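Re-running the complex after MR caught last week's input typo. The corrected sequence lines follow. Everything else is unchanged.
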Amino acid sequence: MKGLLLHLASVSVMALLVACSNSDPVNTLSTSKFEAGPLRTAADRAQIRWGAAVSVNPLLMDAQYRQLAGSEFNTLTPENALKFGIVHPEPGVYDFSGGDLIADFARANGMKMRGHTLIWHQQLPEWINNGQFTRDELIAIMREHIYTVLGHYRERYADVVIEWDVVNEAIAADGSRRDTVWQRVIGDDYIALAFQFAHEAWPELALYYNDFEDNQFMLLDSTFNLDGTPALDRPKGIGASVLLSDCSLIPKCAAMRSLAEELLAQGIALSGIGFQAHIASAASADYAKLTEWVEPLGLKWALTELDTPCPVGPLDAACFAVQANTFSAAARGCLESPACDTIVQWGVNDTYSWWPGFTFDLFEDALAFGRDYQPKPAADALLALFHQHAIPGD
Ligand code: XIL
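Corrected-run output:
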């Protein structure tokens, strides 16, 4: 069912492209050029990559979305367009239409792009989920997938694409390997192999391991259970009440560190660690502390999917104030760390945030720009922070 939906989703992108091919948006999308707004200008002056995850449909259909994406960010991540099930829906069939659209838009606006993501357990096509492959066959599929996707962007967009989340969410909350098709069929070395193939396919590309932090602990008023499922029987709150910042106390974070150390010891070309930073919390995590192990390993780190949602309901100024603190605490951790130069929020504005879908309509309004496409307190807080970190003379 999920595969069918994904297939329909990719078909619908194609249909949209065909349907719109005679109208303005598609024809002008690759050349749309927007003037930099305040947040992008401040991010540029602070020499920080400030990005947004973007989706194909609103980029095609919503002029305000396009305007905001093109003016207030200097980096883009395709939210879904380069996931396995969309880009490689059938054996030997690749659909780069969505990824190329986003890369063209980034290029037209002088932005960079982070690729997301090559090897993950979600949004896989049916032929992978239902396939009965041997280890060698699945390794060959992984190699072909990585070579083809990276080969496409290396050939056409080497001026735009600077880094890629090679493996996503491979570690479970208890620090063990997540039970996925890659882990089951290939075994522990699938991660090293994925990075090896990515490096072979595009030696200059920065390669990231990306995961969520699992540092959120909920008190009894939380809307989530510890495994991340919604706690429907509990009263609504903003979510986690305590965020841990000591990596060694968080089994997943400790395992991410061990994984990074192992990969480096094997000579694997790992460049950095993406901390997703989906923060369902009124508390603030100290990202400088959480990530302090990264720089000594010679790696970089990034906030790759920053957002912090409010409970569903009327627009809530109190929640937006808390959200501003959470955004700015996380962003400050990056700005103050020499190993971090990238902060990407997971969406452009609240109209299209993934939170309502993900939480069965419990959470929404997770981003720095509102449903009215205007900056929220979180955007103001980031602006002040970027100004404080402006590089003199720039
Ligand atoms: C989410 C997208 O935002 C949704 O549109 C999609 O339905 C599911 O995936 N971690 C990740 C992202 O690495 O790729 C996920 O994106 C959010 C969690």
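None of the earlier attempt is carried over here. The chain has 16 helices and twelve strands. The CA atoms of residues 122 and 295 lie 29 Å apart.
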